């Protein structure tokens, strides 16, 4: 059995996997499959460079992706595009309530200052540990580097998820992960505009979040 990892599988991923297995298999078989997925996840988590564990506010994104890779592996890498899309969405959203961003005018200067200020706190932490190497290949973050006047803009530098996918032969899943970001933003009441991602070979992923156009 795999050694216990310091970062357990995120609860939303675990819930989605259990529900999915219960739909597909008899209880005994579902239990065995779940155990195999957890062991695969733990192997992945233990074999990858640490990005700071629970101290890193973005760790859940990384370990959520590892749980998706583990599920995909234990399904013999045999999933349809619709199944992969449903997996990404289910693990990222779960039963989270939506619509929060629709309460804000994301073009309002004070609202922009508030959101960019909150992201700046996260950016300082990420960038410090990225620069000194203590969180290995964690994301870096720039706040509104293109000085956009509308909406909220951040760029993420590098991507440990894309690094893992490339190293372990899961790159075919990356477009689904990146596309699901847009669906997640819609769920929360905004619209994500994006021109490029690290998975496509760029040095950063641009997140430009604007109010949803009804």
Describe it for me?
This protein has 214 residues and is α+β, with helices and mostly antiparallel strands. The protein is 52% helix and 10% strand. The protein has seven helices and four strands, in the order H-H-H-H-H-E-E-H-H-E-E. A four-stranded antiparallel sheet has the order 1-2-4-3. Strand 1 and strand 2 form a beta hairpin. Helix 1 packs antiparallel against helix 2, helix 3 packs antiparallel against helix 4 and helix 4 packs across helix 7. The longest helix has 24 residues.
Radius of gyration: 18 Å
How far is the N terminus from the C terminus? 51 Å
- Derived from helix and strand composition plus strand pairing, the structural class reads alpha+beta
Major sheet: size, sense and barrel closure? 4 strands, antiparallel
**Total beta strands:** 4
Let me know the average pLDDT: 94
User: H/E order of the elements?
Assistant: HHHHHEEHHEE
Low-pLDDT windows of residues = none
What's the number of helices?
7
Strand order, biggest sheet? 1-2-4-3
Identify the overall geometry.
globular
Strand content: 5-15%
Oligomer: single chain
What is the share of helical residues? 40-55%
């Amino acid at each position: 059995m795999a050694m216990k990892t310091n970062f357990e599988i995120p609860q939303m991923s675990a819930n989605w996997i259990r529900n999915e297995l219960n739909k597909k298999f008899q209880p005994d078989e579902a239990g065995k499959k779940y155990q195999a997925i957890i062991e695969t996840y733990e192997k992945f988590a233990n074999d990858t460079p640490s990005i700071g564990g629970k101290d890193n506010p973005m760790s859940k994104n990384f370990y959520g992706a590892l749980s998706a890779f583990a599920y995909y592996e234990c399904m013999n890498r045999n999933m349809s595009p619709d199944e992969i899309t449903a997996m990404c969405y289910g693990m990222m959203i779960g039963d989270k309530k939506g619509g929060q961003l629709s309460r804000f005018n994301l073009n309002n200067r004070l609202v922009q200052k508030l959101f960019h200020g909150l992201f700046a706190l996260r950016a300082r932490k990420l960038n410090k540990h990225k620069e000194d190497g203590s969180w290995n290949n964690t994301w870096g973050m720039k706040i509104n580097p293109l000085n956009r006047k509308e909406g909220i803009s951040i760029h993420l530098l590098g991507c440990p998820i894309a690094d893992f996918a490339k190293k372990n032969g899961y790159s075919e899943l990356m477009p689904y992960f990146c596309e699901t970001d847009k669906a997640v933003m819609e769920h929360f009441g905004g619209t994500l505009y994006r021109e490029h991602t690290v998975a496509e070979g760029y040095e950063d992923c641009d997140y430009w979040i604007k109010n949803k156009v009804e």
